Amino acid sequence: MEEILRTNDPTALSFAQALLRGEEIDCFVLDVHMSALEGSIGILPRRMMVAREDAFLARSILTDNGLEVTRKA
């Protein structure tokens, strides 16, 4: 699995999920339930993960639609 997006914005996460699912790329979001630790103020980013073989295409799709993606180190 590879991280392709890290954000605090729930709208951006939903948009990214819709884009990737529309292209039949499986993705999931980590750290969704961290709001219990942060007090629901939204300071901890959520991370979107995809399979390593889908990462290049997923980053291209998100970038083409105006989202800033996490680059591979």
From TrEMBL:
One Pfam match, given by its short name, reads DUF2007
Locate the transmembrane regions by residue number.
none
Q: Which residues form the DUF2007 domain?
A: 1-64
Q: Which InterPro entries match?
A: DUF2007, N-reg_PII-like_a/b
**Gene3D superfamilies (UniProt xref):** UreE, C-terminal domain
Name of the protein in question: DUF2007 domain-containing protein
Per the UniProt record, the source organism is Pontivivens insulae
Q: What is the lineage of its organism?
A: Bacteria, Pseudomonadati, Pseudomonadota, Alphaproteobacteria, Rhodobacterales
